[in-house]
């Protein structure tokens, strides 16, 4: 089937073209702040993180915006509302950390788009009835300490004291890393924005998937962020000599596990969700021994928790029948669970209207990846705008966006801020 035709190209203003080119150049500049000599890697509370915060802070100040670092090491900026207040606050942001051997745009693009939108409004002298705060989260990926969303969870007021004892690969605790970064662990609660009068939180992010490219559209609106569950599954059979046990008398755990992996794919298709087996190991792992045990991972995600959980139940039931029919045992250990997050319907409409106003068609895309918006959903309404990325590739050096799509995202974000200002004025005259 042919791809749907693309609508007439959006035509950015000269200022938006210039800003998009600046964003692309700055993404290149931040990519050089890496602990790898030949790749991009910037993890939480490292010297590369500090240099990145300082660089973006300088850009905020160059644009006439306030800049500071919060108690969790997140970079913050503000376009202040005029007058004495009190004023509500709109949060914009994404993350500045990366996975190992990353691309240039995951997280970083959203931070720089927010910065440019705030700078454009200030340069135009447009007064908004609320503060606009930029949040460049220091840790979303969890690459250093193994627990994701540390930056945004501090802002949401959901920091767990036990995290101070997490250790990186060199044995450094998170508490010690915070202190070395200039943050007092005892003051981590000061990063929280919970309880503040917030308008909402908006995040622009590359899609990290192929749907926008397949639809020939640069921008998508996210209705929800998928909830994920992960398991470690172990199939136990009986090891034996590869040359002496007849085929009809074997209890080969790897053969049963292979059937189970196929069931993961079938169940995902049946429930119209996504599921992945990313790891598989067999024991004892010798070429001349029938595997007696096999262990594999299952990552299963859906936009609605109920759908995901029904799929898990079906998968456990069918894999149980498969292994029992071969005289084997199966055990499941849940290693991760994240609740699905619904984006606020009113923010979805505002974002969709902005995209439509540009002559583009907003594609609705459930996010299968986790984002900082998940952390902030308990304290305020959240919305997300996706930007097309080449081939849907992310977490890889080949990650790419076009300057034209960045300009479209910037224009949509500017329109969204103006629409939110108008809405605020109507609700609070």
TrEMBL record:
Domain of life: Bacteria
EC id: 3.5.1.87
Catalytic EC class: hydrolase
Natural source organism: Pseudohaliea rubra DSM 19751
Keywords, sorted A to Z: Hydrolase, Manganese, Metal-binding, Zinc
Co-factor remark: Binds 2 Zn(2+) ions per subunit.
PROSITE patterns for the chain: ARGE_DAPE_CPG2_1
Subunit-level organization: Homodimer.
Annotated positions binding Zn(2+) 1: 95, 106, 205
Peptidase M20 dimerisation domain mapped to chain residues: 227-321
UniProt GO molecular function: hydrolase activity, acting on carbon-nitrogen (but not peptide) bonds, in linear amidines; metal ion binding; N-carbamoyl-L-amino-acid hydrolase activity
Binding residues annotated for allantoate, in chain numbering: 230, 288, 301
Name under which the protein is recorded: N-carbamoyl-L-amino acid hydrolase
Pfam families noted in UniProt: M20_dimer, Peptidase_M20
């Amino acid at each position: 089937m042919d791809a749907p035709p693309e609508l007439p190209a959006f035509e950015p203003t000269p200022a938006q073209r210039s800003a998009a080119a600046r964003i692309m150049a700055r993404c290149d500049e931040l990519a050089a702040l890496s602990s790898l000599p030949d790749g991009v890697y910037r993890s939480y509370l490292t010297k590369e993180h500090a240099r990145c915060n300082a660089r973006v802070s300088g850009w905020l100040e160059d644009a006439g915006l306030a800049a500071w670092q919060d108690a969790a090491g997140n970079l913050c900026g503000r376009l202040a509302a005029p007058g004495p207040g009190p004023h509500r606050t709109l949060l914009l942001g994404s993350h500045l950390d990366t996975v190992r051997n990353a691309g240039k745009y995951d997280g970083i693009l959203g931070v720089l788009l927010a910065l440019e939108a705030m700078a454009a409004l200030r340069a135009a002298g447009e007064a908004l009835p609320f503060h606009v705060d930029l949040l460049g989260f220091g840790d979303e990926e969890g690459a250093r300490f193994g627990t994701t969303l540390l930056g945004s969870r501090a802002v949401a007021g959901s920091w767990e004291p036990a995290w101070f004892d997490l250790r990186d690969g060199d044995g450094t605790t998170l508490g010690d890393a915070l202190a070395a970064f200039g943050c007092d662990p005892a003051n981590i609660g000061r990063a929280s924005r919970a309880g503040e009068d917030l308008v909402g939180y908006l995040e622009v992010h590359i899609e990290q998937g192929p749907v926008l490219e397949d639809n020939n559209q640069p921008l998508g609106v996210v209705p929800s962020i998928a909830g994920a569950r992960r398991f470690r599954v172990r199939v136990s059979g009986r090891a034996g000599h590869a040359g002496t046990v007849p085929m009809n008398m074997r209890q080969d755990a790897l053969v049963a596990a292979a059937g189970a992996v196929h069931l993961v794919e079938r169940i995902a298709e049946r429930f119209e969700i996504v599921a992945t087996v990313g790891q598989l190991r067999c024991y004892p792992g010798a070429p001349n021994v029938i595997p007696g045990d096999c262990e594999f991972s299952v990552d299963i995600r859906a936009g609605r928790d109920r759908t995901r959980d029904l799929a898990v139940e079906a998968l456990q039931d069918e894999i149980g029948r498969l292994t029992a029919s071969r005289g084997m045992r199966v055990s499941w250990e849940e290693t991760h669970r994240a609740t699905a997050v619904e984006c606020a319907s009113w923010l979805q409409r505002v974002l969709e209207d902005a995209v439509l106003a540009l002559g583009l068609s907003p594609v609705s895309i459930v996010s299968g990846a986790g984002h900082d918006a998940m952390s902030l959903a308990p304290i305020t309404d959240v919305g997300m705008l996706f930007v097309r990325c080449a081939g849907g590739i992310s977490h890889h050096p080949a990650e790419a966006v076009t300057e034209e799509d960045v300009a479209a995202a910037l224009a949509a974000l500017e329109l969204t801020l103006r629409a939110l200002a108008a809405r605020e004025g109507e609700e609070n005259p």
